[in-house]
Structures are given as structure tokens and as C-alpha cells.
Design goal:
The structure is a single chain. By secondary structure, this protein is an alpha+beta fold. The protein is 29% helix and 26% strand. The chain has 7 helices and 14 strands. The chain has helices at 14-22, 38-42, 45-52, 79-88, 100-103, 236-260, 262-283; strands at 2-5, 8-9, 28-30, 56-59, 75-78, 94-95, 120-130, 135-139, 146-152, 156-161, 197-203, 208-211, 216-221, 225-232. The strands form 3 sheets. A 7-stranded mixed beta sheet has the order 2-3-12-9-14-7-6. A 5-stranded mixed beta sheet has the order 1-11-10-13-8, with no helix packed on it. Strands 4-5 form a two-stranded antiparallel ribbon. Helix 6 packs across helix 7 (262-283). The longest helix has 25 residues, at 236-260. It starts with a strand and ends with a helix.
């Protein structure tokens, strides 16, 4: 497996972005897309703890996608206590897909929706929090939107793969998930992964990564911190595909997980291996 650096750009115009990154579905890191947001200076650990520390927040851990857990909440904690926890050191506890703006609507005044492209989904904005060393496993987003992920205060490692690499990543059928770990690749278990090319960056405070629709992403918190994800859709095709993913998740994968548990997980793993097999013949 090869990892290549993701380009970082300043001063990108709307026209340049659309022609060189959006249309060809190519990732890029903006160093200045969020430079005028009040949140860039305002959202510190101390300020969030002082202003909103009493909020109860749901936390997940690295078992979130296990067949016997499946999106279960690990525990609930006061927001201020959680912020102190992730400032101190490593933990796998994360705030995941929790719409903090519904609980603290005034936070929305501190961000700006970019004009770099059309189609931003203003009702879907999430702030993700995690401790040092915590990870978001390899997946692509179920709704198939383009994602603009802005990092605050600390660092986050982001590794992306194009949709063309799906079989090499042992994509589990009926899901948007892969069990591949691009940081510690297991080539004995996933031999087709050797031929994959990933795209990598370390995201710093105030930087925004553009994750194109359908691109796989793996995220590791280099330090305890948080980032804001904004979503945009510029294609009817991907919107329809996102709807299909939701149907598959709700009526097929979730139902079969409840019915069969680990047996369903094992079937998906087997099919992923079968789908990757022709790629091994080409490598040979």
C-alpha cells in the first residue's frame, strides 16, 4: 500500500476548486477556508468548558461498529468533564454524530457556510470530538455527500482512498464499512490491500480538508481535539445513492445484524474476500 500526501492550498478561488478538485473528485486541504470564522479563535477547550460544560453528551468507543454493539452509546458524560478528559491524554471515547447545534444553537453563529461550491446542506452539521489515539474506522459516508472537515486547536491524521479502491479495501457488502487498518495494514488477512494507493495529511488548527463524495476515509486523533463537518451535494446521482445506502442500512444490514449477529458479520467478511480475489490474480 502506498500513501501520497494531499495537496494543501491557500487562496483557492471557487472556479479553481470546481475545475481542479470538485469535478475530478480530488481531495485538497484548504489552509484558509475558515479564516474568517469566529469559531477559529473562539472555540477553545477552556471557552467551551466554561460556557457549555454542563451539557450531557453521549459518547461512543471503538466498538461502535461491532456486530454485537452496533452504534450503541458507551456512556454519557458532562461536556466539560469530557473536554478535560481528552485534554489530559489518550482515550478511545468520542462524540460521534451528535448534533451539538440543536443543544447549543448559538454556536452556529460562529461558523460560515463556504461559497466555494453550491449545495451545502445547512441542516446537517456535526462537531466530532475525540481523545488522543482514538480513531474513526475506514468508511465512506452513507449519504454520499462531499464533506468539508475543519480542524480546531489540535491535529488529526486523515487517510483517504478513492471509490475505485473499494475492492482492495475489502468493502463489506450492504454497508459503507471496511475493516482494513491503513495505519497497521494486515497483508496476510487483506493481501489485495498491497496494491492500494491512499492519500494522507495531518490536519492542523484552522485547516479544512475536502473529502469528495464516495471517498473512503480513516481518521486518527493525533491529539485530543475536535472538528466540524459540513456537507454539500452537487449531484442527483449521489443523492439517490445516499438514499439507497440508507435503505440498505435500515432494512437489510441492521435487520440482518439483529437476526444473525456475528454470523451476518462473518458472511460480509467472506464476501469482501471473494470480491477482492480477482485483484490478487492480476497482482500475480
Amino acid at each position: 500500500m502506498k500513501l501520497v500526501p494531499i495537496e494543501k492550498r491557500s487562496g483557492l478561488t471557487r472556479e479553481e476548486f470546481i475545475e481542479n478538485y470538485l469535478k475530478p473528485s480530488r481531495p485538497v486541504v484548504f489552509t484558509d477556508l475558515a479564516k474568517d470564522w469566529p469559531a477559529v479563535e473562539k472555540w477553545t477547550f477552556e471557552w467551551l468548558r466554561e460556557q457549555h460544560g454542563n451539557l450531557d453528551v453521549p459518547l461512543v468507543d471503538n466498538h461502535i461498529h461491532d456486530a454485537d454493539k452496533y452504534f450503541q452509546i458507551a456512556k454519557t458524560m458532562k461536556f466539560g468533564d469530557y473536554l478535560s478528559l481528552i485534554e489530559k491524554g489518550p482515550t478511545d471515547l468520542r462524540i460521534f454524530l451528535f448534533d451539538i447545534f440543536k443543544k447549543i444553537p448559538e454556536l452556529a453563529d460562529d461558523i460560515r457556510f463556504p461559497t466555494i461550491m453550491d449545495g451545502f446542506l445547512k441542516s446537517y452539521k456535526f462537531v466530532f470530538f475525540g481523545g488522543e489515539g482514538s480513531i474513526t474506522n475506514l468508511h465512506y459516508d452513507m449519504d454520499c455527500s462531499n464533506v468539508f472537515l475543519t480542524q480546531f486547536q489540535t491535529r488529526k491524521q486523515v487517510i483517504l482512498f478513492s471509490p475505485e479502491e473499494s475492492r482492495r479495501l475489502y468493502h463489506h457488502p450492504f454497508t459503507v464499512m471496511s475493516k482494513v487498518d491503513p495505519i497497521n495494514p494486515d497483508y496476510e488477512k487483506f493481501p489485495a490491500l498491497k496494491g492500494a494507493t491512499g492519500h494522507e495529511t495531518i490536519l492542523h488548527h484552522g485547516e479544512t480538508i475536502f473529502i469528495p463524495s464516495l471517498w473512503w476515509h480513516y481518521i486518527r486523533y493525533v491529539d485530543g481535539g475536535f472538528s466540524l463537518a459540513l456537507r454539500a451535494n452537487n449531484s442527483i446521482f449521489t443523492a439517490v445513492r445516499g438514499g439507497m445506502n440508507l435503505v440498505r442500512h435500515t432494512f437489510v444490514d441492521k435487520s440482518m445484524t439483529k437476526l444473525l449477529g456475528l454470523d451476518w458479520q462473518h458472511w460480509k467478511e467472506k464476501k469482501a474476500v471473494e470480491n477482492a480475489q480477482p485483484l490478487l490474480q492480476k497482482q500475480a
